[in-house]
Design a protein that fits this description.
Distance between the termini: 61 Å
Shape: elongated
Strand content: under 5%
Helix content: 55-70%
Structural class: mainly alpha
Order of helices and strands: HHHH
Largest sheet: none
Radius of gyration: 23 Å
Length: about 100
Amino acid sequence: MASETWIRKAFRRVRKGLRAAGEIYEGIYFAPYRSQIYRSYRQERDTFLLLGFADLLGAPNPVAFYALEIYPDVIEEFHQWHVRIGMPSAPDGGFRCC
């Protein structure tokens, strides 16, 4: 019984050490590029939203029928996007996000 407790404590220490090593690794290698990675992700996401909601902005969208399935999942991101690009309210186009 006592040896089981000792093993659990040792295992817990090893896990804690591995977690700390992982955080150090991430801090050294990924932290300097984190903002650049996020900026790239946001640009790709904005392009995706622009293509997905092009018909709301007046541009013909050849895949509008297929995009109907993803609208409920990305409508909140669309709202954040149109506010970020300077449109305080959603464009008129059939459904509202605000």
